[in-house]
Automatic annotation (TrEMBL):
Record's signal peptide: none
GO biological processes: protein repair
Gene name of the record: msrP
The organism of origin for this protein: Aromatoleum tolulyticum
Cofactor note: Binds 1 Mo-molybdopterin (Mo-MPT) cofactor per subunit.
Reaction(s) catalysed (UniProt annotation): L-methionyl-[protein] + a quinone + H2O = L-methionyl-(R)-S-oxide-[protein] + a quinol; L-methionyl-[protein] + a quinone + H2O = L-methionyl-(S)-S-oxide-[protein] + a quinol
Family (UniProt): Belongs to the MsrP family.
Subunit details: Heterodimer of a catalytic subunit (MsrP) and a heme-binding subunit (MsrQ).
Binding positions (Mo-molybdopterin): N79, Y82, E83, C137, T172, N218, R223, S234, A235, K236
Keyword Phosphoprotein: no
Transmembrane segments: none
Post-translational events: Predicted to be exported by the Tat system. The position of the signal peptide cleavage has not been experimentally proven.
Protein name: Protein-methionine-sulfoxide reductase catalytic subunit MsrP
HAMAP family in the cross-refs: MsrP
PANTHER family found in the cross-reference section: PROTEIN-METHIONINE-SULFOXIDE REDUCTASE (PTHR43032), PROTEIN-METHIONINE-SULFOXIDE REDUCTASE CATALYTIC SUBUNIT MSRP (PTHR43032:SF3)
Length: 314
């Protein structure tokens, strides 16, 4: 299946981080193996842990973009992970406190075979792929990231979803001893998808990036990546996945329902109430580029929304 790419892509010319880092607080005012072994996951600084814990072997994916990739340093130091702070550099500075082993993910709800998966179960559940995806933040910046994982559908099929399961809810880890206590959002952070979105082959259960285990600040040890939606839909540090029959309430939608809809598909024709979504700044580039419908994945996912008014179902 062909992945669409922008017509104006230029070779990546990465600039010093100080030139592109934007410290605005957008909403505060409103079969795999680990080469280094399990012991490297906990108790080390995140950069050392990531450098030691390689993932492999990795299959190439036909879903990958061939666009220039955002450098590892930018991907791991310019983050939104509000549990560890609301400035972009806060997660890299603070998320090292998070212990990612042992770690389990409960898959529960309307499932015939609900069960709990250890992180090692997940690493062995399906062949790992490298998926080079565009990431579009709702704040109008973007990256291109080589994620590592496998389709979320492979996990969901393990638990035999019932016919009454219409949605999938993601519940993330929250520990007030090491995470932000201010009520920026209703903790723990939750997100959700329709079940057909969750089962779509582009939806990735993600265990790494750049061939290594996920750094803590990027959602270790397991997250989901939904590349045609704004980045906040891709829940980090997941501890539970629930199959439910009703649309789940999600963190940003509860906080500002007029600004953050349940679907939150990338759509250049529907502006955020406080800024335009027509263009974006790719991290490492000076000029803005046009934002693509569904973040450039319209060929693969537009059929999911046939007959829907995407201005109302935003």
């Amino acid at each position: 299946m062909r992945i669409l790419r922008p017509s104006d892509i230029l070779p990546s010319e990465i600039t010093p981080r100080a030139l592109f880092e934007d410290r605005r607080r957008f909403l505060l005012g409103a079969g795999a193996t680990l080469a280094a072994g399990a012991a490297m996951w906990a108790g080390l600084p995140s950069e050392a842990r990531a450098a030691a814990a390689k993932l492999g072997p990795l299959a190439r994916s036909p879903f990958s973009s061939d666009e220039p990739q955002t450098p590892y340093k930018a991907v791991t130091t310019y983050n939104n992970y509000y549990e560890f702070g609301t400035d972009k550099e806060d997660p890299a500075a603070n998320a090292g406190k998070l212990t990612v082993r042992p770690w389990t993910v409960r898959v529960e709800g309307l499932a015939g075979k609900a069960r709990t998966f250890d992180i090692d179960d997940l690493l062995k559940l399906a062949p790992l792929e490298e998926r080079i995806y565009r990431l579009r933040c709702v704040e109008a910046w973007s990256m291109v990231i080589p994620w590592v994982g496998f389709p979320l559908s492979a996990l969901l099929r393990q638990v035999d979803p019932q016919g009454s399961a219409k949605y999938v809810e993601f519940v993330t880890h929250y520990d007030p001893k090491i995470m932000l206590r201010r009520p920026v959002l209703d903790w723990p952070y939750t997100e959700g998808l329709r079940i057909d979105e969750a089962m779509h082959p582009l939806t990735l259960l993600t265990l790494g990036l750049y061939g290594e285990v996920l750094p803590n600040q990027n959602g270790a040890p397991v997250r989901v990546v939904v590349p045609w939606k704004y980045g906040f839909k891709s829940a980090k540090s997941i501890v539970a996945i629930r199959l439910v029959d009703k649309e789940p309430r999600t963190a940003w939608n509860k906080s500002a329902p007029s600004e953050y809809g349940f679907y939150s598909n990338v759509n250049p024709n529907v502006d955020h109430p406080r800024w335009s979504q027509a263009t974006e700044r790719r991290i490492g580039e000076f000029r803005k580029r046009p934002t693509l419908m569904f973040n450039g994945y319209a060929e693969q996912v537009a059929n999911l929304y046939q007959g829907m008014d995407l201005r109302k179902s935003f």
